[in-house]
Amino acid sequence: MSGVWGEFLKLSIFGESHGKCIGIVINGLPAGLELDLHHIQKELGRRAPGKSQLATARQEDDAFEIVSGYLNNRTTGAPLSVLIWNKDQHSRDYEEIKDIMRPGHADFTARNKFAGFNDYRGGGHFSGRLTAPLVLAGAIGKQILSQKGIVIGSHILRIGNIEDTRFNPVNADPEKLLAMSDKPFPVISEGQGQLMQEHILQAKMEQDSVGGIVEAAIVGLPAGIGSPFFDSVESKLAHLLFSIPAVKGVEFGTGFAVSGMRGSEANDEFTLGNGEVRTMTNHCGGIQGGITNGMPLIFRTAFKPTPSIARGQRTVDIVRMEEVEIHIQGRHDPCIVPRAVPVVEAVAAIALLDMIIEKDGSSWKI
Q1: Could you list the residue range(s) of the whole structural domain that residue 314 is in?
Q2: Taking the model in full, what pTM does it have?
């Protein structure tokens, strides 16, 4: 098992959902970077559980502790190591079902991969709890990117079949993007947001769950970041986005809908605006040939419904080798999408920072 990602900015995540702590080691940060610790805690708070009826009742404040690589309020250039302590585990919820394969979870595949030695409590290392260290790293990445004029924002585009207004793909407003992070339920249309919340609570009442889509926009990116083929912007972003538990689809720009267009419709024609080359439309999502073109980078990430539901489901007891019915107890999100919004932003910041370091080399330092 490897929890390591990155070529120039290297991350290593560790821990389990019901272990003592989770954490991350970040290699490649410059020395002398002053971290905005309040901003990091705010980002972690956006993802933290137990804040409303729309989320799991597990109570974790996600307070973090920097244990190396930071001295006198500045990064030292050494690997930055950070711990987030687990405080509210109910491991007993998993003892009775440790041999029963939960539908939609990684229980069966993990048991086969690791010969049954994997930590089954709360999903262990497969848990969405491990996205907290990613949000922490992303908060640092956002701080660096913001000093370069790059802004990342996202909103809940869809819950079930209820859809919000989409971002303007040509003129995404950076102030509106930033304002999304202050909303407890980040949507553009408050009316649609209310319908989404009612839909989530209805599913919860019916002992079920729902999924949805997060739309993200990144503005201020210069043209020229990324590479063709294996290190394209889409490849790097998709790698990290698909690393988020429950992500089942990613599309850039117009996405799958572009397949129904003709070339005359899908091509983004060029124009001049204030002495800069821009495109009149943005079906490509700000990326051409795997490289940014200076337009807003637009992408959407689809999340499946939370697999842990109280409604009865058919499955197998892997020890007794018999079919059984499972009713999953414990504390679970009826919809993980609201808490996934800052995770999507975080991994986007991490991926972009890695690509910026690749492009600028030693000159990337702020």
Answers
A1: 91-364
A2: 0.93
